[in-house]
Design goal:
This protein is an all-alpha fold. About 75% of the residues lie in helices and about 0% in strands. The protein contains seven helices and no strands. Helix 1 packs across helix 7 and helix 4 (about 60-75) runs antiparallel to helix 5 (about 75-100).
């Protein structure tokens, strides 16, 4: 069995309840987005000087997403492409939030983070099983890939 199949299967063991799955479809992408936003909030002078001062995507979140992408490539190249597209979408959404200028990005990201994690823990309470990352921290990155693999299956894309 391939490593990605093993990880997705193990992650899926604690995500069988329909309510918990539905909550994960909402909260996992929001958590990914919020973490991307929090990382993008870190002052990024060094990144901007390397990638260009006028580039709104020249921030630490872009660097972090590249590192996360390397992990996904080690598991599955097709899944990593989907995760790269989702990561790029997160960067676009973050830049949109910044342009709205409602509140600092880090504040909005922190609120999303805590609300989404509250949802996650509620879902696991309903499920009656602990979140997978309590067993292994890498499951924090497997959650988004687990959702992506369902999309791939639905559209008949091998992963």
């Amino acid at each position: 069995m391939r490593r990605i199949d093993q990880l997705l299967s193990e992650y899926g063991e604690s995500h069988q309840d329909a309510t918990n799955k539905t909550i994960h479809w909402i909260c996992v992408p929001l958590i990914f987005l919020s973490i991307t936003g929090l990382i993008a909030s870190i002052p990024s002078g060094a990144v901007q000087s390397f990638l260009g001062n006028n580039n709104p995507y020249a921030n630490w979140a872009a660097v972090a997403l590249i590192l996360v992408l390397i992990y996904y490539v080690s598991l599955s190249i097709p899944l990593s492409i989907g995760m790269m597209l989702f990561g790029a979408l997160c960067l676009v959404v973050i830049n949109f939030i910044v342009r709205l200028d409602i509140a600092p990005l880090w504040v909005i990201s922190l609120v999303i983070f805590f609300v989404a994690w509250g949802g996650q823990f509620y879902g696991h309470k309903v499920e009656g099983k602990k979140p997978s990352f309590f067993k292994d921290v890498q499951f924090l990155l497997i959650g988004p890939a687990w959702l992506m693999h369902f999309l791939y299956k639905r559209f008949g894309i091998p992963y």
